[in-house]
Every structure is written in structure tokens, then in C-alpha cells.
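Feature request, filed as a ticket because there's no other form

It would be nice if the structure record came with a short human-readable summary line next to the C-alpha cells. Right now we just get the raw output. Example of a typical job, pasted below so the devs can see what we mean:
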Amino acid sequence: MTVTAGVVAVQGDVSEHAAAIERAARSHGEDAEIREIRESGIVPECDLLCMPGGESTTISRLLHREGIAPEIGEHVAAGKPVLATCAGLIVASTDAHDDRVETLNLVDVTVERNAFGRQKDSFEAPLSVTGLDEPFHAVFIRAPLIEAVGDAEVLAEWDGRPVAVRDGPVVGTSFHPELTDDARIHDLAFFD
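Raw output as currently delivered:
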């Protein structure tokens, strides 16, 4: 069986996410056809979506300008899975604390951009993640802080702060799971 996986290809680690999705699919005996999303009309063909990091104001602006934002909303309303990482989580949130980011209101969290610090403050940490048997080695780069959680379920915390959440079919992370060879976060988001 082949799943059609859309990766929002406006910015961010598109090829790394594609590779992680392919690894996760293979672990379930499936193939993944990766579709890069830069314009409307592709999301409706996808079984699952990934929203990578990058610069949240740019991602938000392009998703709305290109007509992709409502398609992502319809995807989630249909119960299809989404993984939103770093800036993708900011855009997917209900409140980004930044008027320049028109959020998609997919994950009931309030976030603060770059709250873990600048690029030089990047770090890596082992995380206990709900649904995973072993800790996940997480990479934090200019990571957003999840300040408040509404109806979303907290999947992982670092230093007492939520860094991974699930809200219905959407999993959001403050960190970059695509920067490791471990596809378990993609597996958790898409195949669990």
C-alpha cells in the first residue's frame, strides 16, 4: 500500500521530513509518495501532512496567500493526520503571540516564538514521549515555547515545559524530529 504524504515545502527541512516519513511508512510495510506543497490543490490528494519549521511569519503568509491554509483545515476536519514541527507548530497553534502570524487554529496551545533562545542556544535532549518505549533524542533549534495548553494532550515535556502535544489528528513539536535518524515521532503522528 502507498500513502500520499504532503510536506509543506515553503521553507524548512523538506527532504529530511520526506526521508523520515518514508522510514516510518516502511516500518509498517507501506510506501510513501511524497508531494511537496507550494500551491493549493495538492493537500486534498494527501493522506497525511507535515508542516516543517522555518520562519513562521513567512510560512503563515504563504499558506494563506496560496490558498493552502483552508485545505489544511479541511484535511484536519476530515481526521487526517498532521505533524507540525517548530515553526509549523507556531502556525498550527491557536495563539502565536504575534500578530504577523495568522494561525491555523489546529492545535489548542499558546506558543511563544524563539522562547528557548537564538540559534546559538540550540540544544539536544533525551525526551520521554507518551507512546514511545525509549527516550527520543530531540534537537531544539530556535524552538518555540508552548506557554499554555487548552484541549491538547501533552506528549512530552522538557524542564517542566510542554514540547510535544497532540490535538485530535495533529501532533505538534517544539523540536525538530527530522534531524535524527529516528522516525518514531513521524510514526507516532502518522501511523499510530
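Something like this underneath would help us a lot:
The first strand starts at residue 2 and ends at 8.
Residues 23 and 84 are 18 Å apart (CA to CA).
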